[in-house]
Amino acid sequence: MRARPVTTLLGGLLVGLLALGGCSAGDTSTSGTAPTSPSAADPSTPTDPVAALRSRCASGIPDGTPVRPVRLGGGSGPSLAAADFGPTRGSGTVLVLLHQTGPWGLCGWGRFAARAADAGIASVAVDMCGYAESTCDPDLPAVDQVRVAVAHARDDLGADRVVLVGASMGGSRTVLAVADGARVDAWVDVSGVSSWDGIRLLDRARALARADRPGLVVYARSDGDQQYDAAERLARAAGARFVDGGSGHGYELMTDYRARLLPAGRAVLRFVEARED
């Protein structure tokens, strides 16, 4: 299955697209969890980088959350817009967060990243190529984009341990990146669609197992029995833990609209904090 990113919003489609806030492939997110934000063309948009990011993400980043916009990579490689959440240096574990589809990019991770910051865990959430404010080839393999974010986590945030976490499209690309050799210490796939970029995730399970990195797969039955069963099979074949996510998809499984952790979000934080590697 191949899903193309949304890069422009035209006239009367704007409201409808913003209500989706999730993946075009397998995402059942509701508009109740999507942040609202002024148009990027709004002349009142702040010019201060932090204020501009908060304006862009609006309710997606809870008030008081420590957040710093950054630009990763560039030169001859991908240029990724990103945001650091939580501690600034020497934070031990750092999460690299890959988003769902839709125009919001990294904003969708703001609520969970805020709760991780409360636990002393730093995160870097990225706009993947073809989404939001990143400028790079949308067809660039996930592993090449992840490498840029992992280098930032280790070199700039002082991580001694990096955990790659993705939701829906990001979950699928997390699996593909780890199978392709991303140098992370553990990984989490939340609602990853069973096939992405024309690749069936189960076909990469042996590569995941060979990578010998602790993994966690989170899935909800509300996405359908076929996808749920595929996620369970992927976890078994990869030697990863499987958690029933309850009801919802992607970000919806992690926090509620008030940024309170839900059971699946708590399970992910426990997995991240366990340091089982």
Automatic annotation (TrEMBL):
Q: Where is this region: Disordered?
A: 27-49
Domain of life per record: Bacteria
Q: What Pfam family is a match, any one?
A: Abhydrolase_6
Instruction: Please name the SUPFAM superfamilies in this protein's record.
Output: alpha/beta-Hydrolases (SSF53474)
State the Gene3D superfamilies in the record: alpha/beta hydrolase
Signal peptide (UniProt feature, chain positions):
1-25
| Residue ranges of domain AB hydrolase-1 in the record | 95-247
Identify the keywords attached in UniProt to this record, alphabetized. Answer: Signal
Give the protein name, as stated in the record.
AB hydrolase-1 domain-containing protein
Q: Which organism is it from?
A: Nocardioides luti
